[in-house]
From TrEMBL:
It comes from Candidatus Scalindua rubra. This is Metallo cofactor biosynthesis protein. InterPro entries: Aldolase_TIM, Radical_SAM_PqqE_MftC-like, rSAM, rSAM_sf. Its cofactor is [4Fe-4S] cluster. GO terms for molecular function: catalytic activity; iron-sulfur cluster binding; metal ion binding. The keyword Ribonucleoprotein does not apply.
Amino acid sequence: MINISRLLKVRETARDVEKHHNKRADEVPKHLVRYANVKAPMVIWNITRKCNFSCDICHLGSALEADSDELTTQEALEFIDQMASMNVPMVSVYGGEPLTRDDFFTLADHAHNKGLRIILSSNAALITKETAGEIAESGISYVGIDLDGLAQIGGDMDVIAGLEKALPAMERLRDAMVGCGVRITIGSFNLSQMPSIIKAIENTGLKRFAICQHLEGKDWK
């Protein structure tokens, strides 16, 4: 019997869905997790407000220093244990910039050892070759690169320039066998640039990018 879906390089077939739909999220391949018998919600964790950028359009109001009431390392480890006990299928880690936490890889390693799947959101500025290797070793399978920080130049937003600045980090992640994509914020300040932005993203060979709606505020309209 010839499997047409496989010949067409379709990653998910009806047989795959039937095979895995009654299993737990940690028992199925990563690209099929949405078909698992998931009864716990995905968690979005703003792990810190600290960031190496000060973007005017930041939804969290990130700062150059961490808040005094952020979770300590021990508290964060206990929170990870709680999520694991609830069989949370996936944790999306945001900031601020998560990589500004000195204990980030301690937490990521612990989450991986507990069977949690971690997706990292980063502005890419701190992703060196060594950091990309640590990301891979900690079991993080995907990094979503937020281009807003790299794109903000003075009082303007230049997403294409931000994308070009992020390319070295993307290459480091690819070399480390970590998947990556980009996320941009869209508003009236860059809506007219979208065709050029999409073309530039296509030219990188990226398979995924996300668009976030801008919440009007400050000097951005």
